[in-house]
Design goal:
This protein has about 230 residues and is an alpha/beta fold. The protein is about 35% helix and about 10% strand. Strands 3-2-1-4-6-5 form a 6-stranded mixed sheet, sandwiched between helices. Helix 3 links the parallel strand 1 and strand 2. The longest helix is centred in the middle third of the chain and has 17 residues. It starts with 8 loop residues before the first helix and ends in a 47-residue tail after the last helix.
């Protein structure tokens, strides 16, 4: 693909077609060629699969982690381990208000009363600001994750943020994920071994029973399935 092609929706649409059958490494390499240091990636630290892929393909890449103030201790520990093990530039982003400040202004346990607003304040808006210096970002979205993600292209145009969104492992199955992590010794959040296949903020994440959708433990009982970052 022509790496000098004008950036924007047309580039993303063309790349999605041409890279649909490409490997994750090839997709990441393409993004690095096109966007250079205007490319970053995000990680929730549920595991370091995407970090491993990106660090090996684009050493020193900026990795954004959203510290909502509500994370499990295991997630923060995974973040610290990832920073020490992989060749990345970790950027920890925090909301404008601490949890205590938010409780004072909006009342305690906003995550129970209105999880949509809580996610917006502690995830969506901080990420919007963190992504402003970049033209593209890598994510770990997979089509198998949930019904809402089944049509995820490997490259897409993020209309809301007006930037290119690259999803190198969109086509990967759970088996492919497990095989890669086993073969390469990828760091994993220990909660994954305690029936938390999808890990978010502690107050809004529960264990998942065998056979349940992997994301059913997120905002259980609220009808909410996404924090808003990818919708």
């Amino acid at each position: 693909m022509n790496a000098t092609m004008t950036e924007g929706p047309e580039l993303a649409e063309r790349a999605a077609r041409e890279l649909e059958e490409a490997t994750a490494q090839e997709i990441i390499s393409w993004a690095g060629e096109v966007f250079g240091n205007r490319l970053c990636m995000t990680s929730s630290m549920a595991d370091a699969l995407m970090v491993d892929l990106a660090a090996k393909t684009l050493p020193g890449i900026d990795v954004i982690f959203l510290d909502t103030g509500y994370h499990f201790a295991e997630t923060i520990g995974t973040r610290d381990a990832v920073e020490s093990v992989y060749d990345i530039n970790l950027i920890t982003v925090e909301p404008k208000r601490t949890v205590a400040e938010q409780d004072l202004v909006l009342g305690p346990r906003l995550h129970n009363r209105d999880p949509g607003i809580c996610c917006h304040l502690r995830k969506v808006e901080p990420l919007r600001l963190a992504l402003e210096p970049y033209s593209a970002w890598l994510t770990g979205l997979r089509r198998e994750d949930s019904v809402t993600r089944r049509d995820t292209p490997v490259v897409q145009w993020d209309k809301r943020r007006r930037m290119t969104k690259v999803n190198p492992i969109a086509r990967w199955t759970r088996e492919e994920v497990d095989a890669y992590m086993s073969e390469h010794g990828v760091l994993v959040n220990p909660l994954q071994y305690d029936d938390y296949p999808s890990i978010g903020c502690e107050p809004c994440t529960r264990r998942v029973a065998p056979g349940e959708d992997p994301r059913s433990g997120r905002w259980a009982g609220t009808g909410k399935t996404e924090c808003g970052i990818h919708t």
